[in-house]
Input
Amino acid sequence: METMPNLENLLPEAGIIAITDVVVFIFVALYTVFSFLLMKQIKLMNKSFSTPLGGVFTFFGRLHFFAALILLLAALLNL
Output
């Protein structure tokens, strides 16, 4: 009688973890680029349309970008 191969034995556990780490790093890198572009858009918006809350928008845009950078650094250290 012939046994069917298990999907568990198709890839070793270390290979799955490595693939997952790389995919997560790519997504976090793309998210960091998105947060940078968002910060630039906020700057352009504040230039063309001034509001009393422009400083608050700029602050939260920069905070979001720096949080994304910290997340990117954490993902890089996890590789």
Remarks:
- The radius of gyration is 21 Å.
